[in-house]
Records
---
Amino acid sequence: MSKRIHVVPHGSGWATRREGADRVGSTHSTQANATQAARGTAVRERGEVIIHRPDGRIRDTNSYGNDPFPPKG
């Protein structure tokens, strides 16, 4: 199971969806609420949240866990 959770437009609101999943995990009225839910799961599972824009393009990504490419010095 993927540890990447996408925050995507869904109907008139927003949803969380695991990468590769056919169905959404949860639906929310705002992008902020969906992002908060996705972040909670990603923190527990040491995963990644990928936030999309209303047009579907990626807006931002956040990792919660071991960073394979930590900042240098």
---
Amino acid sequence: MLELLRPSQVCPAVWEVEPAPLAAAGIKGLILDLDNTLVNWNSQQVRPQVAAWLEQARQAGLALCISSNAHSPRRVRRMAERLGVLCITGAGKPRASAFLRPAALMGTSPQSTAVIGDQLFTDILGGNRVGMYTVLVRPLGVWEFPGTMIVRLAERLLLALLIRTRTKE
């Protein structure tokens, strides 16, 4: 079970993930979390680094799709349109469909798709369950959905355990 929560890669922020090596490794599509991954929670402000990174990903030939559990589907669709990416609203991560639907929209297989998100129990668990490459990034901001704030404590403890078990291997 612990392996399902271990990300394939950890980066400080989405813009630190290098698209070209992912594409060279056979990744054809990226499933992206929205809140606290691409933008601060419940925000519509896109940081210049995120906009530049999305362009790098496109130039590397990667398809892009947001998969979001956010409670406002209209906001998610507006943000996806603004960013020029596909989207799935009310995704229900970590359910398999929250990852398989975006992959189907992009025309990619699980093996050629990477998931980038800020939460172990939704983004990483779900992506790993369907056999995708997973990238954990730090949350962009401190504000988030109240339920997520509670889960963060368990995430911190689990991350410490994952790091300890990785160093023992």
---
Amino acid sequence: MIKEAIEKIIELSGPETIDVDGRTYAYRKWEPVKGPKPDTLNVKTLTGFVDYLKDIGELDGIKDLGSFIHIESYKAVSLRGPFDNYGVRVNYIRAIHTGPVFQFGNWYSPEEFIILAQSLFEQSDAMRGLIKQIGNLAEQDIKTIEDDGVTQEITVKTGVAVVGQVQLNPIIELIPYRTFLEVTQPKSDFLIRLRKPGPQIALFEADGGAWELLAIQSIGKWLEGIVGEEFKIIA
């Protein structure tokens, strides 16, 4: 009780600072007291990011401050400024892609899979063919699924009669929406798997994450085409 009272008195005593070699530190945590800096403006599209660079950025004088564009990842781009007196860069604006994405590794019913495949992927010939295959399987009764690690062979039946066998290639190249919609979406390979009962379908990424590098390159190319001569782009 006494300890808590003492801590409360210290808390209410107000902030205390101390100067060491010309720098000001907070007394209790020994943290430097940093000067004010602008809040980061957050947007969700590259279009909003570029609009700032072309219009509002002129008012903020960002070009005269040695600012540059930093492509942090396939889903984040920021405009950074030079170091301040404490070695901290100002982050003027940040674009973060927050759109819905397909959950790879999750198992879906044929109906769920078809809905997500039509809304979260570009409709390439490969995707249209896969949707057709899955749609046909959804209307049949799956008897067996043979998996040799290379292909999956599905035996379907109607009632007691075996209708036939369907071979499903394990690797398929698809184009999911995974980065900013203004840029070209990267193609990559996926492993498709079915399991009983249901059947249930899942897609697994099979490119070792190489698509992220392709997405970053795509963002950089898009930005270069609009503001490349005005700002240095770091990826």
